[in-house]
Design goal:
Blueprint (H helix, E strand, L loop, with lengths): L34 E2 L4 E6 L6 E6 L10 E8 L4 E8 L10 E7 L9 E2 L1 E4 L5 E7 L7 E8 L2 E10 L15 E6 L4 E4 L4 E9 L11 E7 L12 E3 L4 E10 L3 E9 L1 E6 L6 E11 L2 E4 L3 E6 L5 E6 L4 E3 L4 E7 L7 E8 L14 E2 L1 E4 L2 E6 L7 E11 L8 E8 L1 H8 L2 E10 L2 E2 L4 E6 L4 E6 L5 E8 L1 E11 L2 E4 L4 E5 L6 E3 L2 E5 L11
Parallel strand pairs: 13-22, 24-31, 32-40, 32-41
Antiparallel strand pairs: 1-17, 2-3, 4-5, 5-9, 6-8, 6-10, 7-9, 10-11, 12-14, 14-19, 15-16, 15-20, 17-18, 20-21, 20-22, 23-25, 25-29, 26-27, 26-30, 28-29, 30-31, 32-33, 32-36, 34-35, 34-37, 37-38, 37-39, 38-41
C-alpha cells in the first residue's frame, strides 16, 4: 500500500507452505512474495561528492483500524435487531480498492437468524451497515467482534439484547491470550524442529506504544505454567505483521507488501523427546500479566510396544481357515497405538514379504486390535507370524516374531478325536484341599469345568482335547482364600497318553497390609 495507507491484507502468491499435520491451511498461512523486512530497513544515504554516508533506520508498525475506521453498535429493542455501522474516518486514509469489514457474534445463534454481517467501505459514502435479528431476552448479552480487512477483532463490543441502546462503548480493556492450535493432547513425532502455534491476543486500547509491552509464546517444559526457565518467542505487538520488500523503482520508491493477522508462529522444539509439555502464551502490558490456558501436547520419539499377543486356537493355524490375532499395546506410548499389521514370514527373512502385503489390524476397544490373516498359502509345519505396531504420530516399532503350527483341517479333526482325562490333587503345604474348584481354559477361550475336589483333594476333568490350557484353581483353608502362586499352563499334544496327572499347589496370596489379595 502507499505510504500512510492502512497495513491491510493483500492476496498472497501461490507459494507452497508447510502446515501443521491435520490443520487446515488458509491463504494467511502462505508466505508473501519478496524479502522479509519485518524487523525494519536500514537506509544508506551516500553523498557522491564527499563520499560520506548517513544511516537511517526505517521501522514498520501495523496501523490500528481505529485510525481510519469508526464503528457504532447498538440494539433496537422494538425491532429486536443488533445493528453495526462502520464508517471511514477520511477517504484519504483508505485504500483505493476499499476496505472489507466483517462482524462476528461469538455466542452461537440459531441458523435461521436473519443477518448481514459482511460489507465494504467504498466510494462515495465509505460506509457499511450490518445487522443481525436477535430475539430480545432479558439479561442476554452477546459478544460482537468487528474484523477490518485481515486485521482480526479490530473492535470488540458487549451487546445487551434485553434493553434498547444506540451507541455502546467499545471493550477497551481486554487482557486475553488464547492458544487456538495445536489442540490439547495432540502428539508430535519427535524430535521436531518446531511446533506451529496459532494464538489470539486481545490487549487494552493504546498499549504497545512504549516498547515495554510484549507477548510471549512458547513451550512450558517443566509444566509450571510459567516461563521461568523456558525461552519463549517474544513480540512487541498484539498482532503479527508480515512486511515484505517486493521491489525498488527509479527515484527511490520502495514497493512493500504487508499483512496483519493473529499470530502463526513456529515455536522451536528444543530437541525435546518423549515428554509432555504445555503450549503457553503470556501478555504483559502496563505492568499487568495475563496467561493463556495451558495446552498440553506430547513430543513422542519412542516406538510402541506390544504387551500381549493372542492367536485363536493357541499356537495353531488351520490351513484354509482365517487366523484371528488379537494384540494389546502396553499403554505407555505418549501418542498411543495408531495401527498394527501382520503377515506370515513365508520367505523366512524376518521381514515382511512384498507379496502378499501385511494385513492391517482394526481397533476393537479396550486397547485391543484384531487382525484376520488368510492361511491358504501356508504349508503344514512351523511358521513365523510377524507383527509390527506404530503409534499415532508414525513411530514404528520393531518387527516381532511368533511361532505358530500350521496344520490341515483334517488333522485338526483327528486331534479333536483324542480326548484326555486331566486329574490330580489340589495341595496346600503338601496337604490335600477338599472343596477346592479347578477349571481349564483353552487358548480359543473354551472352558472345561470347573469341578470340585473330593475329600482327598482329588479332581477329575474328562474329555479334554488337544490344545494349550491355563489352570484356574482356588480353595479355602482356615477361612482364607488360597490361589496358585504363579499362573499354571500346560499343553496336550497329539499322541499324549489318555491320562494326564497335574497336581496344583496353592498358597496364601496377600496384598500389602495383610489383606487377602483380590481375585
Amino acid at each position: 500500500p502507499a505510504a500512510g495507507a492502512p497495513a491491510a491484507g493483500a492476496p498472497a502468491a501461490p507459494v507452497a507452505a508447510q502446515a501443521e499435520p491435520g490443520a487446515e491451511t488458509s491463504d494467511l498461512d502462505l508466505p508473501l512474495p519478496g524479502e522479509d523486512v519485518n524487523q525494519g530497513l536500514l537506509v544508506v544515504i551516500r553523498d557522491r561528492q564527499t563520499g560520506e554516508s548517513t544511516l537511517r533506520r526505517l521501522d514498520f508498525a501495523p496501523q490500528r483500524p481505529r485510525r481510519y475506521v469508526r464503528v457504532e453498535v447498538g440494539y433496537n429493542l422494538n425491532a429486536e435487531q443488533l445493528h453495526v455501522t462502520v464508517t471511514g474516518q477520511s477517504p484519504d486514509l483508505l485504500p483505493a480498492d476499499g476496505v472489507k469489514v466483517r462482524a462476528e457474534i461469538v455466542e452461537p445463534l440459531p441458523q435461521t437468524v436473519q443477518a448481514r454481517l459482511e460489507g465494504e467501505l467504498k466510494a462515495p459514502d465509505y460506509q457499511a451497515v450490518l445487522y443481525a435479528n436477535i430475539p430480545a431476552v432479558p439479561r442476554r448479552t452477546v459478544t460482537l467482534r468487528v474484523h477490518v480487512d485481515d486485521y482480526p477483532r479490530a473492535f470488540v463490543f458487549r451487546v445487551p439484547c434485553g434493553v434498547h441502546s444506540r451507541s455502546l462503548p467499545e471493550e477497551e480493556h481486554l487482557m486475553q491470550v488464547r492458544i487456538v492450535s495445536p489442540q490439547a493432547n495432540k502428539a508430535f513425532q519427535a524430535p521436531v524442529e518446531s511446533v506451529r502455534v496459532r494464538a489470539e491476543v486481545d490487549a487494552p486500547v493504546g498499549t504497545f506504544q512504549n516498547g515495554n509491552d510484549l507477548v510471549e509464546i512458547g513451550l512450558d517444559e517443566d509444566l509450571d505454567r510459567e516461563f521461568r526457565s523456558d525461552a519463549p518467542l517474544r513480540f512487541h505487538n498484539d498482532r503479527q505483521a508480515d512486511v515484505r520488500l517486493t521491489g525498488l523503482r527509479p527515484g527511490g520508491l520502495l514497493l512493500v507488501q504487508t499483512r496483519v493477522r493473529d499470530f502463526v508462529v513456529d515455536v522451536p522444539g528444543n530437541g525435546l523427546q518423549n515428554v509432555r509439555v504445555n503450549v503457553l502464551g503470556r501478555l504483559f502490558v502496563r505492568q499487568k500479566t495475563a496467561w493463556s490456558l495451558p495446552v498440553p501436547i506430547s513430543l513422542d520419539a519412542a516406538a510402541p510396544n506390544l504387551a500381549r499377543v493372542k492367536t485363536a486356537g493357541g499356537n495353531q493355524a488351520i490351513i484354509g481357515q482365517p487366523l484371528l490375532i488379537t494384540v494389546w499395546g502396553d499403554g505407555e506410548d505418549l501418542s498411543l497405538m495408531g495401527g498394527v499389521e501382520a503377515a506370515f514370514d513365508t520367505e523366512r527373512t524376518g521381514e515382511f514379504p512384498l507379496a502378499p502385503p501385511p494385513v492391517p489390524g482394526k481397533p476393537v476397544g479396550d486397547g485391543r486390535w484384531e487382525i484376520t490373516l488368510p492361511t491358504e498359502q501356508l504349508t503344514p509345519g512351523r511358521h513365523n507370524l510377524l507383527l509390527r505396531a506404530r503409534d499415532r504420530v508414525g513411530n514404528q516399532g520393531k518387527i516381532l516374531s511368533y511361532e505358530v503350527q500350521a496344520i490341515p483341517e483334517a488333522e485338526l479333526q483327528k486331534q479333536r478325536e483324542t480326548l484326555v482325562l486331566v486329574t490330580g490333587r489340589v495341595l496346600y503345604r503338601e496337604q490335600p484341599v477338599p472343596g477346592a474348584t479347578v477349571g481349564l481354559k483353552a487358548a480359543d477361550g473354551k472352558e472345561y469345568g470347573p469341578v470340585q475336589t473330593d475329600e482327598q483333594g482329588q479332581y477329575r476333568i474328562e474329555n479334554v482335547p488337544v490344545g494349550s490350557y491355563q489352570v484356574d484353581a482356588r480353595g479355602v483353608v482356615r477361612n482364607t482364600p488360597r490361589f496358585p502362586a504363579e499362573p499354571i499352563t500346560f499343553e496336550i499334544k497329539q499322541g499324549d497318553p489318555r491320562l494326564k496327572r497335574l497336581d496344583i499347589p496353592i498358597r496364601p496370596n496377600r496384598a500389602p497390609g495383610g489383606a487377602a489379595e483380590p481375585r
